Amino acid sequence: MRAVTLSGFGGPEVLQVEDVEAPVAGHGELLIKTVAAGVNRADLLQRQGHYPPPPGTSELLGLEVSGYVAEVGEGVLGWAKGAPCVALLAGGGYAEYVAVDAGQVVAPPEGIDLVTAAALIEVAATVVSNMDHVRLAPGETLLVHGGAGGIGSFAIQYATSLGCMVVATAGSEEKLEICRELGADVALDYHGDWPTQLREATEGYGVDVILDIMGAKYLDANVRSLAVGGRQVTIGLQGGTKGELNLGLLLSKRGTIAATSLRFRPPSEKAAICERVAEVVWPMITSGRIRLAGETRFPVEDVRLAHEWLAGGENVGKIVLTF
């Protein structure tokens, strides 16, 4: 089968498409013939050597795919060969075939084509699992960094659908307008003094929940932006891994800071998350309560361009590789 492999760690030039041995469906697994694979920032980190896959996982890049069931492994019920599906992976998605625990596979949302569906499961699972983790409730205020990106554009709409006020940050007027169109009540340019503007917009209250993709760079500003009893969950480290935390300020706000990783969860937890996505999120997409922010498509042969486009920061929505 064709797959994207690495000649080493580094820039997009280390990516290459070559023939490798295809996997087979083991016990409790499905073998999927890939139609499209989502491209995520975690893939860029793995390519650079900073984000190795969990032990025993495929070394190939790719955390989500769409396609058709090609083989049903022993012990798997409820799936038939040829069924359309999407899958949440720990790795291996940049390939024509991928084997995955059946619990991490769900049918795509009704009415959504498979290429578009390839870019939904990872972001939906990330947002839902983390908002559940910090117990986002109707009437609360959520701060989303990178509101025009794949995670951000989804989180804005998900929180809005729950009846929350949403504050989003982005880096250009075009992207700020996208955040507003998606439902953000307040959109702030992160090049400016967004913490002060946030306090003004919330009349000094702050935010109840922060979905943080930046890590160290925004740590102090995020803590200052929390309301009393506020909760931050960090899911990305685009702004560095080590920062200084003012514990006195956090204590005075009775605040909580958590950090999670979807990729390293055991299959049983991923299965539960995927089930919740299919139960809660897919109907939101089908009904139009969550509008898809669109995707940029690249044939797998142009995988280097796909990585360059994502790294460039100009992308809106998600990026997918098509097979």
- Tell me how many strands there are: 15
Provide the helix percentage: 25-40%
CATH homologous superfamily name of the largest domain? Medium-chain alcohol dehydrogenases, catalytic domain
How would you describe the oligomerization state of the chains in this entry?
A: single chain
Helix-strand topology string = EEEHEEEEHHEHEHEHEHEHEHEHE
Topology record:
Layout: E1 2-6, E2 15-19, E3 29-39, H1 41-47, E4 64-72, E5 84-88, E6 97-101, E7 105-106, H2 114-117, H3 121-133, E8 141-144, H4 150-161, E9 165-170, H5 173-182, E10 186-189, H6 194-201, E11 207-212, H7 219-225, E12 226-234, H8 247-252, E13 256-259, H9 267-287, E14 295-299, H10 303-312, E15 318-322
Parallel strand pairs: 8-9, 8-11, 9-10, 11-12, 12-13, 14-15
Antiparallel strand pairs: 1-2, 3-4, 3-6, 3-15, 4-5, 5-7
Molecular structure report:
Strand 9, helix 5 and strand 10 form a beta-alpha-beta unit. The protein has helices at 41-47, 114-117, 121-133, 150-161, 173-182, 194-201, 219-225, 247-252, 267-287, 303-312; strands spanning 2-6, 15-19, 29-39, 64-72, 84-88, 97-101, 105-106, 141-144, 165-170, 186-189, 207-212, 226-234, 256-259, 295-299, 318-322. The chain contains 10 helices and 15 strands. The protein is of the alpha/beta class and 323 residues long. Helix 3 (121-133) packs across helix 4 (150-161) and helix 3 packs across helix 9. Helix content is 30%, strand content 26%. It has 2 domains: 2-120 and 263-322, Quinone Oxidoreductase, Chain A, domain 1, CATH 3.90.180.10; 124-259, NAD(P)-binding Rossmann-like Domain (Rossmann fold).
